[in-house]
What we know:
Layout lengths: L1 E3 L1 H9 L4 H8 L3 H8 L6 H11 L8 E3 L3
Antiparallel strand pairs: 1-2
Helix pairs in contact: 2-4
Amino acid sequence: MKIQYNKLWKLLIDKNMNKVQLRDKASISSNSLAKLGKNEPVHMDVLMKIATALDCKVEDLFETHQEN
Length: 68
């Protein structure tokens, strides 16, 4: 299973935010932000902080796809 955070990046564009602003508003680490940028898994608490900061649901942040 592969995870992609394209929905998160589109949401940031819609909210006129950049990654640094997201990091600060959600109080997440630079390391977590780097993992998101590489489509790597992060802890659920990181996703919950982002969802709270962006006033959205966790499922609005990512998609999963089957790996071939």
